[in-house]
Specification:
This protein is α+β, with helices and mostly antiparallel strands and 219 residues long. It has one domain (1-219). The protein is 50% helix and 22% strand. It has five helices and seven strands. β4 and β5 (116-124) form a beta hairpin. The chain is globular and about 45 Å long. Residues 184-189 and 206-219 have low confidence and may be disordered.
């Protein structure tokens, strides 16, 4: 089962400044990529990469892999529709993959930023799931704190806390969908509808989860 692991970063003040500068630089790059996509009608990942990569590489202080992730972010934002040009929040989330993000012993994460690699301590509600990391992580800046929402793929028998994982998965997906598109129809209807579905499904899962716990205690 693919789920989302919430990881809170504990950077120093200097590291926090580098992280926020990296997030802003990446989202500025996304705006520039979106401009290219809109002007040249290049909404396909391959075509947009060809049109934008070298231009963005020359103008922004970003690694090749971060630029590739930014291009993916822009193309994803245009999958909903192509009626309006996409703009991105300055502190919106940015994606990392294993080439620019890795986890070290003693709860240390090595993450790329505009000043190079940073080694930052982190806390996680269950570090036993870290070996199951598979896929990208989103770096999120929320209320002055930095988080990684890391995709993990865990065998069903290893999942210990269905309720907590479900909440994190719902939050992460909502953040990603609402963060970049700036689509009025999406914000006014789809987001509320998704929240409603998550709430209903979560209540159902919680009921089943606690019922199973109660039954298991009887044996």
């Amino acid at each position: 089962m693919k789920l989302t692991l919430k990881i809170k970063l504990l950077p120093t003040d200097e590291q926090a400044n580098f992280l926020i500068s990296t997030i802003k630089e990446a989202n500025n790059a996304c705006d520039a990529i979106s401009e290219i996509a809109w002007d040249r009608k290049a909404f396909n990942q391959f075509k947009l990469h060809k049109e934008a990569y070298y231009t963005i590489k020359s103008k922004f202080n970003l690694s090749s892999q971060v630029i590739i992730r930014c291009i993916s972010k822009v193309t994803d934002s245009y999958k909903i529709d192509r009626k309006t040009k996409r703009q991105f929040r300055p502190c919106g989330s940015i994606a990392y993959d294993s080439r620019i993000l890795s986890y070290k012993p003693s709860n240390i994460v090595s993450i790329w930023c505009i000043d190079g690699r940073l080694k930052i301590p982190f806390i996680c509600h269950n570090t036993n799931y870290l070996p199951y990391i598979k896929g990208e992580a989103d770096l999120v800046f929320k209320k002055g704190k930095f988080y990684l929402f890391q995709t993990v793929e865990i065998p069903d028998e290893e999942i210990k806390d269905v309720e907590e994982f479900f909440i994190l998965n719902a939050f992460s997906e909502n953040c990603q969908k609402a963060e970049a598109e700036r689509n009025p129809a999406f914000k006014n209807f789809s987001e509320k509808f998704i929240c409603f579905l998550y709430e209903r499904i979560f209540l159902s899962i919680r009921h089943i989860f606690f019922f199973q716990q109660k039954v298991s205690c009887c044996y």
